[in-house]
Write a structure and sequence with these properties.
This protein has eight helices and six strands; from the N terminus they run E-E-H-E-H-H-H-H-E-H-E-H-H-E. The protein is of the alpha/beta class and about 210 residues long.
C-alpha cells in the first residue's frame, strides 16, 4: 500500500478534502507507477464514504488516443484491435503524428467534464495522464483555476523497479484495458518528471 505524505498547501487553499469541495486532481508520475489504480481506489472509497453523493470522473489521454484513432481510421483500428498492446502503441504513435488535430479533439472532452464538475458544485475530476511537466499540465490546471476549482497534485516518487513490476503485471493480465508500456518509454518519462512549483496547484502531496 502507498504511504501518503502531505506536501505543501497554498495559504488560501480550500479544504480539498471537504465533502462539498469540487476539485481537479493531477496524479504525476511515469507510466505504470500505480496512478490509475490508486485514483480508482480513492474514488471508490469516497463514493462509499459519502453514500454515493460524491462522484469521481476521469479524463485520460490514453482513452482519448484510442477513441481518436478509431474515429479517424476505423479500418486500421479493426486490423489491430484484437491485439491490445499493438493497438495501444499504434494509437499512441498516431496521436503524436497528428498532434495538432488530437489536441483539438481531446481538449473539448476535458472541458465538457470540467463544466459538469462546475455544475455539480462538488466531486472530483481526475486528469489521469502522466502529467510529467508544467507544460503538459498547464492548460488543464489553468482551465480549472479559471473556473475557481481547487487543484491537487499527487506526485508519485516510487522507484523505477516498481514501474517495471506494474507494467509486467499489466502485460500478463488479460483483463487490462490498456496495453503494457514499453520499458524504454517508462525510463524516458521517469527522467523528465518535474514536481510542481509552489503555487502551480493549490495542494501537493507525495506518494512513496
Amino acid at each position: 500500500e502507498a504511504d501518503l505524505v502531505a506536501g505543501w498547501e497554498s495559504r488560501c487553499a480550500i479544504d480539498v478534502d471537504a465533502v462539498d469541495c469540487a476539485r481537479v486532481v493531477f496524479p504525476i508520475g511515469a507510466s505504470s507507477c500505480g496512478k490509475s489504480t490508486m485514483m480508482t481506489n480513492m474514488a471508490n472509497d469516497l463514493r462509499l464514504a459519502t453514500g454515493g453523493r460524491m462522484k469521481t470522473t476521469f479524463f485520460g489521454l490514453d482513452h482519448a488516443r484510442l477513441a481518436f484513432f478509431k474515429e479517424r481510421e476505423p479500418e486500421a483500428y479493426k486490423e489491430v484491435e484484437h491485439d491490445r498492446d499493438t493497438l495501444y502503441n499504434v494509437a499512441w504513435h498516431y496521436a503524436n503524428l497528428h498532434s495538432a488535430a488530437f489536441s483539438q479533439y481531446e481538449l473539448p472532452v476535458f472541458m465538457h467534464k470540467l463544466d459538469e464538475l462546475v455544475r455539480a458544485g462538488k466531486g472530483v475530476l481526475v486528469v489521469d495522464n502522466t502529467n510529467l511537466s508544467k507544460s503538459a499540465r498547464r492548460r488543464y490546471v489553468s482551465a480549472a483555476a479559471q473556473k475557481k476549482l481547487a487543484t491537487v497534485a499527487y506526485v508519485f516518487m516510487r522507484p523505477l523497479a516498481t514501474h517495471f513490476n506494474f507494467t509486467a503485471k499489466r502485460a500478463a493480465d488479460p483483463t487490462a484495458i490498456l496495453g503494457a508500456v514499453p520499458e524504454h518509454r517508462i525510463r524516458q518519462q521517469y527522467l523528465v518528471r518535474r514536481i510542481p512549483y509552489l503555487g502551480e496547484v493549490d495542494v501537493m502531496r507525495f506518494i512513496w
